[in-house]
Amino acid sequence: MSYLKYERVGILGMAAAVPKNVYHNLTDNEYFNPEDARAIVEKTGIVERRVASTDICASDLCAAAAERLLSNIKADKQEIDVLIFISQTPDYRTPGSGIILQDRLGLPKSCAAYDINLGCSGFIYGLSLSFGLAKQDGVRKVLLLNGETRSKAYSFKDRKTGFLFADAGSACLISKGKDFGESHFLLESFGSMHEYIMIKAGGSRYPSSLETIKEKTYPDGSIRTDEKGVMDGNAVFEFAITEVPRQVRQMLKVTKRDMESIDHVVLHQANAFMNSHLIKKMKVPPEKAPVSLDRFGNTSSVSIPLTMVTELQAELRKPKSLMLTGFGVGLSVATALLDTPGLTISDLEEI
User: Fold this and answer.
1) Is 0.85 surpassed by the pTM of this model?
2) Which of 5, 52, 99, 338 can bridge 167 by disulfide, Cβ–Cβ 3.0-4.6 Å?
3) Which residues of 130-141 are buried (b: 16+ CB within 10 A; e: fewer)?
């Protein structure tokens, strides 16, 4: 178990950005008849998604969110000593998008910048790392960016994934501060299950070829290339409803807290069927678990900060106790328990 605890460090503010383009799952997917589309939407709960145009990358969404946040919070860019960009859909194979964003955002050359390849648990992993770096004497502020254009990584003709994934970016500014309460993190990895959510071709082990870019039809009627993502939905569901409640119970035990003391439980926005089972199993009142997936879909590591910005903007401007849990690709699970003062939460940016 990786258990991390911090004091007097925390989030100053948050922002998020999405593409302006709204994709309607019930009417826009031409590859499925209305009856099939309706059945999938009823199960996933994802009615609309934001889908980026071909010229918008994850870094563009993060840059928009970061500029909005830094402007609203009146942050001195010269005080940002670390930039972390978390994504599984970077602009290029090399160089990393984070180091490009350092220049694009006008951050000083003294700013350390790098990418981390993480999915659904990525915001929590990134937050834990950001808190640890921000505690260092030589670091004043850390800018954590989570960005995904997941719609480009999955086939819209796939019955299991074609209605789920969407695009978004977020920015989170982290700093030391005497007003910040305790912060706790639990991080776990389940690499033996890595094939449950996977894009097999296009990397060094299975390089791109004429064969990997050919569309293939599968027994369930799904159509995709080997360079599009696949997901074993049943296996992921069993994993999540077992490991997520166990880790949340562990967090409550190690912090000597109970669910009644938590103001909001923000889950990774996987799909409505899975998340409804999770909150029942964890005995979380539905009103404590905000939902954004119906309007924004599954945005991987961005889903937690996106939900916080869009569903809890007014609430988070006041002191709150938050449980944040990300789970999925890896497979991995990560949970944070934060006591936050009032935060600067920017309005949603659309590009």
Assistant:
1) yes
2) 52
3) bbbbbeeeebeb
